[in-house]
TrEMBL record:
Keywords: NAD, Oxidoreductase. It catalyses: UDP-alpha-D-glucose + 2 NAD(+) + H2O = UDP-alpha-D-glucuronate + 2 NADH + 3 H(+). One of its GO terms (biological process) is UDP-glucuronate biosynthetic process. Residues 311-414 form the UDP-glucose/GDP-mannose dehydrogenase C-terminal domain. It holds the Pfam family UDPG_MGDP_dh_C. Substrate binds at F150, L151, R152, E153, K202, F247, L248, K249, A250, G251, G255, K318. InterPro entries: 6-PGluconate_DH-like_C_sf (IPR008927), NAD(P)-bd_dom_sf (IPR036291), UDP-Glc/GDP-Man (IPR017476), UDP-Glc/GDP-Man_DH_C (IPR014027), UDP-Glc/GDP-Man_DH_C_sf (IPR036220), UDP-Glc/GDP-Man_DH_dimer (IPR014026), UDP-Glc/GDP-Man_DH_N (IPR001732), UDPglc_DH_bac (IPR028357). NAD(+) binds at D30, K35, T86, T121, E153, K261, R325. SUPFAM superfamilies: 6-phosphogluconate dehydrogenase C-terminal domain-like (SSF48179), NAD(P)-binding Rossmann-fold domains (SSF51735), UDP-glucose/GDP-mannose dehydrogenase C-terminal domain (SSF52413). Pathway: Nucleotide-sugar biosynthesis; UDP-alpha-D-glucuronate biosynthesis; UDP-alpha-D-glucuronate from UDP-alpha-D-glucose: step 1/1. This is UDP-glucose 6-dehydrogenase.
Length: 433
């Protein structure tokens, strides 16, 4: 099939590449000339394992092209996929300006029947708005469909090529048939539904996962007070198939480009129909507080923080990505520097993106994990990169001025710490000192 993907970000690029890998003819479009020029030159603008190789092989096979020319990409396609961003407005609502602008441009470019698919996460009713905008700008016929995206950054290619399910929301028989054919090589588990339910499935899924995270974080906070170990508790819960073991890892809370904005957006969606989503509001509040546990633990060991030096390992919101949108590290580091702390930060991949957004005279970005730790009064581990997990603790002990380790991701075990002099705080597990 011939596809145009509008918006070549984490979702558009990965989806476009994976559809090309399946043998489709794909043109990825973006407004950003720099990004498209890089992609045309074989460079990859984001860090995502395996992506570079797949771009290279599919571009070489002539199945994958990149352009800033939206009209010609739309005209060459049978199916147009919208994958532009839907960031939060200050109110928490989804900003639909990129979607609306792209819909207008698609409408102006149509030269015959197309299927217009929205992959971006959009509030209920948005696909209908897309349809209305396209109609205003064309005389040609088209169908619309909501096919929400569920990939996770860091494992985006594997998730796209082996999805748990594909959701296709449309009221058009032709769209249902062609989109099922497009996705069938990926999975037989295709859920056909109406547009509004498809839009809601995406928000409900992310809200539920965020709820699991805030739930286990609250259990962890109670574990700390009653002397239980949340990793054992989560393991015991996870063996129950009704609960499942995923998303039960206690830590510093969720971040990233999806959960924070999608939970806020769903609260707003509910509010617009006079429904107060009390549970989800609490999930968001718990998540906001959770990151400050790191600060409280630092204060518990170091006392007054002003004048201290703290090393931070990990800036991305999770490992295997350079995405720092809504990463908890921002608020943690900002709070530290506001308290008069000098921060020595390091992330193997996300450092450039992070330092562009947080430039402060008391934050030094270091060239290695070792350099960040050297001479610090304490180390906070905020992202569970393998590199940190594998760092020899005996070496770390000698690098730090004081062997204080605040493990925000529960990376180390009591056995590994036995025989060391670390003062060790994790999340929801007994402290060691
Ligand atoms: P992104 O910000 O990485 O990429 C969006 C791209 O769209 C940008 O490169 C931007 O320049 C481009 N763009 C905006 N308007 C355009 C236009 N009119 N024409 C051409 N290009 C245009 O965003 P993302 O992370 O890929 O997310 C896209 C959507 O997918 C969002 O709605 C998001 O919620 C959803 N989503 C994201 C993920 C994820 O893990 N990132 C997962 C599932 C769903």
């Amino acid at each position: 099939m011939k596809l145009a993907v509008i918006g070549t970000g984490y979702v558009g690029l990965v989806s476009g590449v994976c559809f090309a890998e399946l043998g489709n003819d794909v043109i990825c479009v973006d407004k950003l000339e720099d990004k498209i020029a890089k992609l045309q030159a074989g460079e990859v603008p984001i860090y995502e394992p395996g992506l570079k190789e797949l771009i290279a092989s599919n571009a070489a096979a002539g199945r994958l092209r990149f352009t800033t020319d939206l009209p010609s990409a739309v005209r060459a396609a049978d199916i147009v996929i919208l994958a532009v961003g839907t960031p939060s407005l200050p109110s928490g609502e989804a900003n639909l300006s990129f979607i609306k602008q792209a819909a207008k441009e698609i409408g102006e470019s149509l030269d015959g029947y197309k299927i217009i698919v929205t992959k971006s996460t959009v509030p209920v009713g948005t696909n209908e708005k897309v349809g209305a905008i396209v109609s205003e700008h064309t005389i040609h016929s088209f169908d619309i469909a909501s096919v929400p995206e569920f990939l996770r950054e860091g494992s985006a290619i594997a998730d796209t090529l082996n999805p748990d399910r594909i959701v296709i929301g449309t009221d058009s028989g032709i769209a249902r048939e062609r989109l099922s054919a497009l996705h069938r090589p990926l999975t037989d588990n295709i859920l056909l539904t109406d547009i509004r339910s498809a839009e809601m499935i995406k928000y409900a899924s992310n809200a539920f996962l965020a709820t699991k995270i805030s739930f286990i974080n609250e259990i962890a906070n109670i574990c700390e007070k009653v002397g239980a170990d949340v990793t054992r508790v989560a393991e015991g819960m996870g063996h129950d198939r009704r609960i499942g073991s995923s998303f039960l890892k206690a830590g510093i809370g969720y971040g990233g480009s999806c959960f924070p904005k999608d939970t806020e957006a769903l609260i707003q969606i509910a509010g617009h129909v006079d429904y107060e989503f009390k549970l989800l509001k609490s999930v968001v509040e718990v998540n906001r507080d959770q990151r400050f546990g790191v600060i409280r633990k630092l204060e518990a060991t170091l006392g007054e923080l002003a004048g201290k030096t703290v090393a931070v390992w990990g800036l991305a919101f999770k490992p295997e990505t350079d995405d720092v949108r809504d990463a908890p590290a921002f608020e943690i580091i900002q709070t530290l520097v506001d308290s008069g702390v000098r921060v020595r930060a390091y992330d193997p991949v996300a450092q450039d993106n992070f330092s562009r957004q947080l430039d402060h005279p008391r934050v030094d970005y270091c060239a290695s994990a070792e350099e960040a730790a050297a001479g610090a009064d304490a180390l906070c581990l905020l992202t569970e990169w393998k590199e940190f997990r594998e760092f020899p603790l005996a070496r770390l002990e000698t690098l730090l001025r004081r062997p204080v380790l605040i493990d925000g991701r529960n990376q180390f075990t009591e056995e590994e710490l036995a025989g060391t002099s670390f003062v060790y705080y994790s999340v929801g597990r007994p402290n060691l000192s």
